[in-house]
Amino acid sequence: MNKQIAFSLIASIFLCIALGYCSDEDSTEPTANESSSTTTSSTTTTSITKCPQNIPQNISASDGQPQDKIVITWDSVTNAEKYNIYRSTNADDGYELIGMASDTTYTDTNVTKAVNYYYKVSAIKDGCSETSLSDYDIGIAGFSTEGMVLINGGTFNMGDEWGIGHENQLPVHSVTVSSFYMDETEVTTANFEKYIQTYNPDTTWYKLFSKDKECNINLDNQLYDDHPANCVTWNAADDYCTKMGKRLPTEAEWEYAAGNGSEHWQFSLDRTKYTYSLDKYCTDKLELNETCSVKSHSPSILGLHHMSGNVLEWCSDYYDAKYYEKCGEGVIDPENTTISEYKSVRGLFSNTIYYLVTVASRRLENALNVYFIYGFRCVQKVASE
């Protein structure tokens, strides 16, 4: 019994030592690793991050000036540190992040001529959620208005209002056209030859044309540099406009501009045939099959030269003699995109009897045909619309 008590006592002593409960003497002094100072409480202040709440406003994208970039600007947003810039080629969807800006300006240099780009902007800050995207604005790459005239949009009666045309000009119907820019003259031979040398240096088709005395294109002869480029296919005309950041006009745009907008004159320089004066137009080359300089005659009241006379001009529409019947009343910016063999041609050649061709006159031609009476001019939509 005494052995058991002794064994228990020894075990208790070892346990006491192991657990630190035992000491040679009670002590209330602090150990070397303890601080003798009085512990004080401290208050930690938590800062509140102020995040941007508003969506960027007044987004503005430049319209191709200069032609190798588009500059986007917007109003600053309170508490924003940076901004994300998104771009799409569709106004409604497909926006992708293309960059970030620390101020309210961003320059997009990854652009292609003749493409409409839509931009949106959001505000961001570290520790905050990105704001919603702004409304979009549109920028057009590679577009210059030099040598163009602004044609303010409006509504007019498209077709033969005077009762002297063909059935393909009927029925007369109301059309609304959005504002656009139009070349003040037909594309000149000099400018078209620059296009050939820049974009089609290996082609030889123009050399064949230059052998025809009725074709103005001739790289070795500058005699007709200021005359309209004729003997041009629709495809070549369309490609030229595209390369310049423009496009061919629709029939509706062409007629609206030729007739001086909503007034819809019968001829570009005369309201009716009763005031028509032959010397106002390049239509006196009845036997020569020649053209005039693109500014040889006075411009229309809109500032356009030779909308009646000189050469006929390609339009973007496919030709359909019954298109006006299908078009209907009150249509906005119509264009016949139903594919067919023929494209529409508008205007008046220099050897045409004037009273047969008003601004409403329509003609068809195969897009691949080359003829000395065909030239063209380009247009571009006003980006803000």
Please bin the fraction of helical residues.
Answer: 10-25%
Q: What is the topology, as strand order, of the major beta sheet?
A: 4-3-6-7
- The CATH H-level homologous superfamily of the largest domain: paralog of FGE (formylglycine-generating enzyme)
Spell out the helices and strands N to C: HEEEEEEEEEEEHHHHEHEEEEE
By CATH, the architecture of the largest domain is named Alpha-Beta Complex
Structural class comes to alpha+beta
The proportion of residues in beta strands is 15-25%
| Major pleated sheet | 4 strands, antiparallel
The overall pLDDT average reads 81
Oligomer: single chain
How far apart are the first and last residues' alpha carbons, in Å? 110 Å
Question: What is the fold-level CATH name, i.e. the topology of the largest domain?
Answer: paralog of FGE (formylglycine-generating enzyme)
Shape: elongated
What does this structure look like?
With 385 residues, the chain is of the alpha+beta class. It has two domains: 60-140, Immunoglobulins (Immunoglobulin-like, Sandwich), CATH 2.60.40; 148-381, Alpha-Beta Complex (paralog of FGE (formylglycine-generating enzyme)). It has six helices and 17 strands. The strands form five sheets. It has a four-stranded antiparallel beta sheet with strand order 4-3-6-7, with no helix packed on it. A four-stranded mixed beta sheet has the order 15-14-12-16. The longest helix is centred in the N-terminal third of the chain and has 18 residues, at 2-19. It is elongated, with a radius of gyration of 38 Å. The termini are far apart.
